Backbone:
């Protein structure tokens, strides 16, 4: 009989925890649970029990396991988990998953064909976010469970994805259950850190006590606990150490040898002189093997040498058996419960427990183990013209078991390099680290260089730098020096993209020292491109504030950027001639940025060249980048988003979530400028947290700025400040976005509150920042709104600022043309040219066709000058602006329009609408629309004079409204009324 227990014993607390987690998931509150324990302690059985209970609740269950063979297979547990679900149920076709299908294509075979453009490697965080969205869709109705077993054997990519899911699962209907051994490593670090952060529960499974061992034996023997012979119970308790697997193994040995048998009076244990020691598991398996037919025994020993999971092909190659004999022996081994088919792969088998394979190998003397491993490695190498990555790893493992460290190192290094080329940098680093430890002295440095690149690509820049710095000296210009210089250059590029300028500069200096005074043109091109991109990064001063490249504000800084542009142009041409298309694309991308200040035509020409190179060499990433930047330029020039939408399609086809988020952020800002508030808000709400999870920092900051700008343009100062606080916390104050923050957001927000003094102060701050930093944003007010306000206020430098803006590329952008056109109209009207002023307004209106809110603001600002100088149609403009801002709920601007009309002697009807904007409680209390306008402003605790100015009413009228509000709301005093206003604003 087979000695397996049909019930779980001694794990009541753990089962309660899993039941609570399942119940929580059904309510939409996600959980993560890690079960930690030694091999055989019952982790998988307990996790399996949780999946059965999930099935009872009709929950989708996804189950995967890491390989126990020592092979590094990126994402194997995740692939197996998704396959376990979709093999039977089919892949979901929910529209919500459409943007994530390219990222998931590596895990879901059904989505693989043509899903990701060639040459693009999905980032780990993109994949993790996509998996999170998939699990959320699967669990939408009843919740879902994903079970990942043996995480201690997982690749680093899987661990990174699991960590992301654990940290973000709390608000999703998903239960993640992971099992692992308590061995030091990334998996245990993840579980312990997650428990410390309260993002996961961790339960360490200890050994069973004697009572539980007795109950387990009773379940195996199908009798009551009192019917287990006491001697048998003591035997199992003594030698199994409370390990459920060993209990079953030792019990099976007792049954197979006949020591434990059923008699008329029940089960009895016969006397036996041999003392079974804790290595009795090994002896038990040796005895069980001895009772099998010799061919089956030989096959199992070979299988154990191949690992806990093995392929039929490898087994055939090593044993030399034909299919008929091979499968007959596999069936025999399956029937006695030693192995079984692997559900994740039709041509693989697994041992029932990983300890089984260990015990079988240990049953052989060391010399015989090594000889068998050597024979297996040679057979597998001879079985194919070219081995795949998994086969090479298996051969490396076998060579190591046979004692040939150098051969194992070469195989591990070769597979590591292949994985690095494929974008699996974490797994590549694991294999290259293993290869480095085994390499011969003369080969170790070369492996170290590759390992450093893998560590950098994995985001471990400090480790990469340490590896490169620890290498022994190499003669300048030698082959070794050139390989190291290339590695330093690649690490410098990664550091630049990660906004770590100090590290990038150290790598560049090291690369130049290795290349000597006369590097080859393609080497110089690669370095020049990194240095050029590095020149654009803001540096940090002692207070952590961005201050840009040293000396940017003076001639030295200007000369350095001009030299960077000349170097980038040489690099682009050289890279194209020398067959380095990636460097060429990077150079053209840099040139497009640097040439913007001479005009967008030149910038677009650089991007078109970048696009042509990318398409010629099938560089999908750079093709999409070029399209996005061309779309951005088109949007800035015309205000239209047609080409941005085309770029979005390219980003989606590429499968890049990060690039897709970047495009959507630009579309959100375009929607803000176009007055499409709901669309902008929808994009921000959908992506702001997702971009943070994706570690897409630049886009995350931009989305936070879009959120603040949206609030500012709607005249909602408290929402604006909250959004700006998040923007600052995300590092926005040290980013290149400061001019937009000051000019496009805060200055316009001040104008929405009719605070022109503050608006000009914000514009001046933006201008001061731009004078000290390289800036390539042209919507900061410097080239449009700023000159208009200076001219309206009659400042001496207004005309000069207007001329400079008109002559700059920024003055050609549609948003700026609108304000500059109105400034031109004011100047012409002031100079006695009403016809010229009228034509200027018409030109500005054509530029403003897609910017309704900004156009009405321009009309409101310009109308006073038109009234003063008797030109244009200021009354009609004011009426139009008043109607727009009243409907938009921007009371200060609407009130200012009414006040100017009254000053002009024009009859202005009272606005009694707007009751729908008053909260129900205040409406019931009888608060009028005008009183509510006063009430809203009280959240900022202004004085009566400030309220009067904002609403264009007298302070005496404000006092009357205040008195009425205190009576109607029951507020004891002004302070209580202000607190109530703030409370309503927050809600």
Residues:
């Amino acid at each position: 009989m087979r000695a397996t227990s049909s019930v779980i014993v001694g794990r009541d607390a753990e089962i309660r925890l899993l039941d609570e987690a399942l119940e929580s998931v059904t309510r939409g509150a996600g959980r993560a649970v890690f079960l930690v324990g030694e091999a055989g302690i019952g982790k998988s059985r307990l996790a399996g029990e949780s999946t059965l209970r999930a099935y009872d609740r009709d929950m989708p269950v996804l189950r995967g396991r890491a390989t126990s063979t020592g092979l590094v297979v990126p994402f194997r547990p995740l692939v197996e988990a998704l396959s376990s679900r979709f093999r039977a149920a089919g892949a979901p076709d929910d529209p919500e998953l459409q943007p994530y299908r390219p990222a998931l294509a590596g895990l879901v075979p059904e989505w693989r064909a043509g899903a990701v453009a060639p040459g693009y490697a999905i980032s780990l965080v993109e994949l993790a976010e996509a998996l999170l969205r998939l699990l959320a869709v699967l669990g939408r109705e009843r919740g879902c469970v994903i079970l990942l077993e043996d995480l201690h054997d997982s690749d680093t990519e899987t661990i990174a994805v699991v960590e992301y899911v654990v940290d973000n699962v709390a608000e999703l209907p998903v239960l993640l259950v992971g099992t692992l051994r308590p061995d030091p490593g990334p998996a245990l670090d993840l579980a312990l850190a997650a428990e410390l952060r309260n993002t996961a529960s961790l339960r360490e499974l200890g050994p069973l006590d004697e009572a539980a061992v007795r109950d387990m034996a009773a379940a195996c023997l199908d009798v009551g606990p009192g019917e287990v012979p006491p001697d048998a119970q003591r035997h199992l308790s003594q030698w199994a150490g409370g390990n459920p697997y060993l209990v079953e193994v030792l019990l099976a040995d007792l049954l197979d040898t006949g020591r434990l048998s059923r008699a008329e009076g029940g089960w009895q244990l016969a006397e036996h002189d041999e003392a079974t020691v804790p290595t009795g598991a090994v002896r038990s398996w040796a005895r069980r093997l001895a009772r099998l037919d010799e061919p089956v025994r030989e096959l199992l020993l070979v299988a154990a040498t191949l690992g806990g999971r093995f392929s039929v092909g490898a087994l055939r190659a090593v044993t030399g058996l034909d299919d008929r004999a091979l499968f007959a022996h596999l069936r025999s081994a399956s029937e006695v419960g030693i192995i079984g088919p692997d559900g994740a792969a039709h041509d693989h088998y697994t041992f029932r427990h990983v300890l089984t394979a260990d015990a079988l190998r240990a049953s052989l003397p060391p010399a015989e183990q090594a000889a068998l491993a050597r024979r297996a490695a040679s057979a597998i190498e001879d079985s194919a013209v070219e081995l795949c990555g998994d086969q090479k790893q298996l051969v490396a493992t076998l060579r190591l078991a046979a004692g040939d460290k150098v051969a194992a190192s070469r195989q591990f290094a070769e597979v590591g390099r292949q994985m690095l080329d494929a974008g699996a940098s974490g797994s590549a680093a694991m294999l290259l680290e293993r290869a480095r430890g085994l390499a011969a002295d003369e080969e170790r440095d070369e492996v170290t260089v590759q390992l450093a690149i893998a560590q950098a690509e994995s985001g471990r820049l400090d480790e990469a730098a340490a590896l490169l710095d620890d290498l022994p000296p190499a003669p300048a210009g030698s082959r070794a020096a050139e390989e190291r210089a290339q590695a330093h250059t690649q690490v410098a590029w990664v550091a630049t993209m990660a906004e770590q300028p100090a590290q990038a500069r150290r790598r560049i200096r090291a690369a130049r020292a290795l290349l000597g005074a006369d590097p080859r043109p393609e080497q110089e091109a690669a370095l020049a491109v990194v240095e050029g991109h590095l020149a654009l990064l803001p540096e940090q001063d002692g207070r952590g504030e961005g201050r840009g490249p040293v000396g940017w504000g003076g001639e030295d800084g200007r000369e350095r950027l001009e030299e960077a542009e000349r170097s980038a142009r040489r690099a682009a041409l050289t890279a194209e001639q020398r067959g380095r298309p990636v460097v060429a694309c990077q150079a053209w991308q840099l040139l497009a940025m640097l040439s913007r200040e001479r005009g967008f035509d030149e910038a677009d020409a650089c991007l078109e060249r970048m696009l042509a190179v990318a398409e010629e060499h099938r560089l999908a990433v750079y093709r999409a980048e070029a399209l996005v930047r061309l779309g951005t330029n088109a949007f800035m020039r015309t205000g239209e988003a047609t080409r941005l939408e085309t770029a979005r399609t390219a980003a989606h086809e590429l499968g890049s979530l990060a690039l897709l988020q970047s495009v959507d952020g630009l579309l959100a800002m375009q929607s803000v400028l176009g007055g499409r508030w709901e669309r902008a808000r929808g994009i921000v709400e959908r992506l702001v947290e997702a971009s943070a999870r994706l570690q897409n920092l630049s886009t995350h900051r931009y989305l936070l700025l879009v959120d603040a700008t949206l609030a500012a343009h709607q005249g909602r100062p408290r929402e604006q400040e909250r959004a700006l606080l998040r923007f600052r916390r995300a590092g926005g104050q040290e980013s290149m976005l400061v001019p937009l923050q000051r000019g496009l957001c805060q200055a316009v927000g001040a104008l929405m509150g009719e605070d022109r003094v503050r608006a000009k102060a914000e514009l001046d701050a933006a201008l001061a920042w731009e004078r000290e930093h390289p800036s390539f944003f042209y919507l900061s007010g410097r080239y449009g709104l700023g000159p208009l306000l200076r001219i309206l206020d009659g400042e001496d430098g207004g005309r000069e600022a207007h001329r400079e803006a008109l002559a700059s590329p920024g003055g050609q952008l549609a948003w700026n043309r609108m304000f500059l056109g109105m400034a031109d109209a004011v100047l012409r009207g002031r100079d006695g040219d009403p016809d010229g002023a009228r034509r200027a307004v018409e030109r500005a209106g054509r530029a403003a066709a897609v910017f309704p809110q900004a156009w009405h603001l321009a009309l409101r600002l310009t109308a006073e000058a038109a009234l003063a100088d008797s030109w244009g149609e200021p009354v009609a403009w004011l009426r139009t602006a008043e109607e727009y801002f009243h409907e938009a709920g921007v009371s200060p601007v609407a009130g200012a329009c009414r006040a100017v009309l009254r000053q002009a002697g024009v009859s202005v009807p009272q606005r009694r609408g707007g009751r729908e904007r008053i909260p129900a409680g205040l409406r019931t209390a009888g608060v009028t629309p005008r009183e509510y306008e006063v009430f809203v402003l009280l959240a900022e605790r202004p004085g009566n004079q400030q309220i009067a100015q904002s609403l264009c009413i007298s302070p005496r009228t404000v006092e009357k409204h205040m008195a009425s509000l205190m009576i109607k709301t029951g507020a004891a005093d002004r302070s209580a009324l202000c607190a109530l206003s703030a409370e309503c604003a927050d809600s």
